[in-house]
Specification:
This protein is of the alpha/beta class. The chain is built from 14 helices and twelve strands. Bound molecules: pyridoxal-5'-phosphate (PLP).
Length: about 375
């Protein structure tokens, strides 16, 4: 089945009894059992719920994994995944990892005993140099947030396999429509489903997908033990959002490409970060491992004043945290996604205070350009 067909039909039929095209929402915390000896498929809904299972299977199928798990947020998926490790274990993490992941690793997980070394993972030698005898996994995001740095996933996974490490990839920006890390040899894919997967800015959710069933079992054990599961109503909303994933990604990406072309002509735009630009250092690597540059781009303005003017003047794109919605979202990483990162750390990682990130939604790109132009006084 091709991707678009799988989005609509997945593992149909949904409801062989009544033929409902939409998955029923099982708003039940527990399921009655027939007898002491005869237990049904579901018992307590933290361990399993049919609506949750439907979205878990859908996301697992799209990523090409054997096990999919839905969590109450992207951070819950990420944090629960860290729980498969033990105190004393070590991870090698790409340096411009999502701010919340940086916070989790550098405070909560660090106190718990999981160590992390942050490296420029665009350089395989830097990854290799950070591996210690206690290292258990590589944790990567490509393209990264907010500088859209590209990590060569095949190079990273072959290094990981050589050293006996797992490769974990946060695939939030690309979605399985554009990039499927499990097919490239990675072991676990993570998502903030809040973003493109659900796509309508109305649910906070996360997913973990494992390729290997044994690894899937370890993750499922933590999901049940830790209990940060996604509720059935939200699961249903994600099921609905997922159906238009392909058309949303295609349209938003086309808009992003158009906006990048326009930004290139703007004097007040100092630098553009977008993996679809041939001058992007990761252009070739990204092309080799994905089928498109996506709908998120970042750019630097010529001054702090211009940046402030743009943020204050933009009317169509919402000025907000988050991305991947049907509406365009402009954000200011220094004070939003990366506010949890100390300023010195942030500056060192190239996240300047003249940097903005734009997640392109489904508005007409010409209207978005006119809005940006007006805000820039162009
Ligand atoms: C938003 C985001 C997260 C965190 O997900 P939540 O759903 O907000 O908990 C993790 N990684 C990336 C790349 C994100 O954009």
């Amino acid at each position: 089945m091709k991707f678009a067909t799988e989005l609509i039909h997945g593992k149909s039929p949904i409801d062989p009894e009544f033929g409902s095209l939409s998955h029923p929402i099982y708003h039940s915390s527990t399921f009655a059992q027939r007898s002491m000896d005869e237990f049904g498929r579901y018992d307590y809904a933290r361990s399993g719920n049919p609506t949750r299972e439907a979205v878990e299977e859908a996301v697992a199928g799209l990523e090409g994994g054997t096990t999919g798990l839905a969590f109450a947020s992207g951070m819950a998926a990420i944090g629960s995944t860290f729980m498969i490790f033990s105190p004393g274990d070590h991870l090698v993490v790409c340096e411009d990892v999502y701010g919340g992941t940086f916070r989790l690793l550098s405070t909560v997980m660090k106190n718990w005993g999981l160590e992390a070394t942050f490296v420029d993972a665009t350089d395989p030698a830097a990854i290799a140099a950070a591996v210690t005898p206690r290292t258990k996994a590589l944790y990567l995001e490509t393209p990264s947030n907010p500088l859209l740095k590209v990590i060569d996933l095949k190079a990273a996974t072959s290094l990981a396999k050589e050293k006996g490490l797992l490769t974990i990839v946060d695939n939030t920006f690309m979605t399985p429509y554009l990039q499927r890390p499990l097919e490239l040899g990675c072991d676990i894919v993570l998502h903030s489903g809040t973003k493109f997967l659900n796509g309508h800015s109305d649910v906070i959710c996360g997913f973990a997908v494992a390729k290997d069933p044994e690894l899937g079992k370890r993750l499922k054990y933590v999901q049940n033990a830790f209990g940060a599961v996604l509720g059935p109503q939200d699961c249903w909303l994600v099921l609905r959002g997922l159906r238009t994933l392909k058309v949303r990604m295609e349209e938003s990406q086309a808009g992003a490409i158009r906006i990048v072309e326009w930004l290139k002509t703007q004097e007040k735009v100092a630098k553009i970060y977008y993996p679809g630009l041939p001058e992007h250092p990761g252009y070739e690597a990204h092309r080799a491992q994905s089928s498109g540059p996506g709908a998120v781009l970042s750019f630097e303005l010529d001054s702090y004043e211009t940046t402030a003017k743009l943020v204050a003047g933009v009317k169509l794109a919402a000025f907000a945290v988050s991305l991947g919605g049907v509406e365009s979202i402009l954000s200011y990483p220094a004070k939003m996604s990366h506010a949890a990162m100390p300023p010195a750390e942030r500056e060192a990682r190239g996240i300047k205070d003249t940097l903005v990130r734009l997640s392109v939604g489904l508005e007409d790109p010409e209207d978005l350009i006119a809005d940006l132009a007006a805000a820039l006084g162009a």
